């Protein structure tokens, strides 16, 4: 039987409320940007099915509203690239796969790196990264610690890549980490579920959008 996200252990709203105090928690929204999510972005132009991403973004929007209303920190991650900043290892990987030029995504010049549907507001943390891990080569950890953040609630795209790597890195940086399973998505069948399962076994607790919104009740009407 195929692995289903709903069959994995999840923290419910009653238990969650005591774990994600808005004063010490950040909602981390990963890579909701043009090339990963918009029909006119790179993946959309290549014909990738973006419906799972769109459904996850609907949930991310609810989470952002709840976080803002409850006074939790909102942190928006983006991949932001230019030809001169492309990773040597990534370029080599693409060449060896027979895909030279395949690393050219989320470019500043063509708008592929732009935010999509969810946009920063005053007081938010914004992180521009070159690859998958939101902590690598950025000041994300320093910004979180300056605000007294100890817990991260992570959502976004894609579950198997940047959500996964950011969650694992957060755990290695000694944060308590939650991944919102229905507010994250992948682009191929099975990847979302397998990534959630691997993270849950090793470094995160899973929860759902409704549970987070109930744990941050002032955000529901914000």
From TrEMBL:
Keyword Lipid metabolism: no
Keywords from the UniProt entry: Hydrolase
Gene3D superfamilies the record matches: Isochorismatase-like (3.40.50.850)
Entry annotated with the keyword Hydrolase: yes
Pfam families, per database record: Isochorismatase
CDD domains: cysteine_hydrolases
Single GO term (MF): hydrolase activity
Domain Isochorismatase-like: 25-210
Protein name (database record): Cysteine hydrolase family protein
């Amino acid at each position: 039987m195929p692995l289903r996200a709903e069959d994995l252990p999840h923290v419910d709203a009653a238990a969650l409320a005591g774990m994600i105090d808005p004063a010490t928690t950040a909602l981390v929204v990963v890579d909701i940007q043009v090339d990963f999510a918009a029909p006119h972005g790179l993946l959309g132009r290549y014909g990738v099915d973006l419906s799972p991403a769109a459904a996850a973004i609907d949930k991310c929007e609810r989470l952002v509203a709840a976080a803002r209303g409850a006074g939790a920190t909102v942190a928006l991650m983006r991949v932001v690239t230019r030809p001169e900043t492309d990773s040597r290892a990534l370029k080599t990987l693409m060449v060896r796969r027979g895909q030279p030029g395949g690393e050219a995504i989320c470019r500043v010049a063509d708008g592929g790196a732009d935010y999509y549907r969810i946009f920063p507001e005053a007081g938010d943390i914004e992180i521009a990264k070159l690859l998958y891990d939101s902590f690598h080569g950025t000041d994300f950890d320093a910004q979180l610690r300056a605000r007294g953040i100890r817990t991260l609630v992570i959502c976004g795209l894609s579950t198997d890549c940047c959500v996964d790597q950011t969650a694992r890195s957060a755990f290695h940086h000694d944060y308590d980490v939650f991944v919102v399973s229905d507010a994250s998505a992948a682009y191929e069948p099975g990847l979302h579920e397998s990534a959630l399962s691997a993270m849950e076994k090793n470094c995160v607790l899973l929860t759902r959008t409704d549970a987070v919104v109930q744990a941050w009740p002032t955000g529901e009407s914000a």
